[in-house]
Structure prediction request, 453 residues.
Amino acid sequence: MAQKKIVGYLPNDTPPLGRMLVLGFQHVLAMFPATILVALLVGFDVGTVLAVSGLATITALILSKQIAGKFIPLYYGSSFSYIAATLAITNAEFGVYAQDKVALAQVGIVATGVVNILVGLIVRRAGGRKFIDKFLPPIITGSVAAVIGIALSAAALNMAAANWLVAFITLLATIIFSVYLQGKGFLGLIPVLLGALVGILASALFGLVDLSPVGAAAWFALPKITFPAFTSPKAWESVAAIAIIAIATIPESTAHLYQISLYVDNLATNMGKKKYNLRELIGLNLILDGLGDMINGMFGGVAGTNYGENNSLMVITRNYSGPTLITAGIMAIMLGFIGKLSAAVGVIPIAVSGGLAIYFFGLIGMQGVALIQAEKVNLYDPRQLAIGATILVLGIGGHIGLGGNIPLPIPGVFPDGLPAIAFAAVAGIVLNLVFMVFKTPEGAELKVVDLED
Prediction:
C-alpha cells in the first residue's frame, strides 16, 4: 500500500510564488488583529507598527538563515505582556497617537532588546539549550505559554462579543477547514483564510462590513516614524518600566521556539526528512528577538516577541516556510505605506477577528501543554507541581482577575502593581532556583506508574 503523501512546508522550503503570496497573506491575517490592537491601546501609530514588525521579521529570518543555515520560522510582532508597562509611560487614550510619549517609551523598548541580546549571548556562550534548561526548564516555559494563551482569552471573547453569531460562525468554519482539509493539497494549507472569508461573508449578510474607510483612505501614507528620546530626563524611568518585562517574554520566546521545533521535527519525520532541531538555536533566537525589539524601538514599533498567533497558524496548516514568513513581512511593510491596503484589512469585522482569536489563543495555551507533555515533565514531582501551579494561578488570576497587575505597586515604575505574567514567570524562576540550591529529600519524587497494569 502506497504511503500517503504529507502536505506541508519545512522552514527552508519555498512554495511556488502564487501559493506563497496567499500563505503570506494568511500570516498577515493572523498577526493583524493583535498588532493593531496593541498599537491602539498604547498610543502608537498603527501603520508604523505594522511596517516595523515586517522589517524586524525579515531581518531576523535572513540572519537566522545566514548564521544557522536554516530559517527559524517565527513572526516578530507586538506582545500583550508589555501593554501595562508601556501604558505607564504613554498614558495614552485608545487610538490616540501620543508622539512625545511614544518616543520616551521607545527608550525602554530598545533597552528590552539589549536585555534579550545579552541573555542570548550568555546562553550561546554557556552551552545553549542545556544551560537555559537549568534556569528555564519545560515546566516554566510550558506553563508560561499556557498562561499567555489562557490570559488572552478575555481579549478574544471581548472581540467576539461584537457579534457572537459571526464569531462562532468564523470559529466553526475555521475548525472544520483545519480538521477536514488536512492533507487535501493547497486548501489544507489555508484553513484560516477560508474561515475568515466565511466570517466576512456572514458579516456582510448582517450588514457589518463597511467599505467606506477603503474609499476614504489615501493610496499612499507615510508611517509616523519616531526616534527614541534617549536624552529625556525620564529615559531611565522608561527603561526600568519596560525592559524588566523581558523576564516574561524570554520564557515566552523560549517556549515558542521549543513548540515550533517540536512540530517542525514531527512534520520532518512524517515526511521522511532530516529533523531541524531548532530548539538548539535558543541563544540565537533570543538574540534575534532582541534585535527585533531594537528595530521596533528605534523606529516607532511596540515592544514584543515572536508571535504565538503565527505559531498556531503554522501548526494548523503545517506550513513552516521561512520564505513565506518573509513574504508576510513584506506585506506588513506594504500595509504601513499603502493606505487603501491597510484600510481593506482593517474593515474585517472585529467579530471575525474574535472568532479566529478564540482558536489562536487557545492553541497557544495547548501548545504549552504539548511542550510539557513532549518533554515528559513528571507532574507527580512536587517540585514541578509547585512551579507550574504557582505560574498558572499568578499569571492567569493576575491577568484576568486582577486586571493585568499583581497589587504590589512600586512608585515611579509600576504604580498600578507588578505585571502579572512577568511576576508569574519570575516566581517560577525563583522557585526553580530554590530547588536547585536546596536539594529536596530523597524519595520526594513519585514515579509515573500505569494503574492498569
About this structure: Strands lie at 76-78, 304-306, 405-406, 418-419.
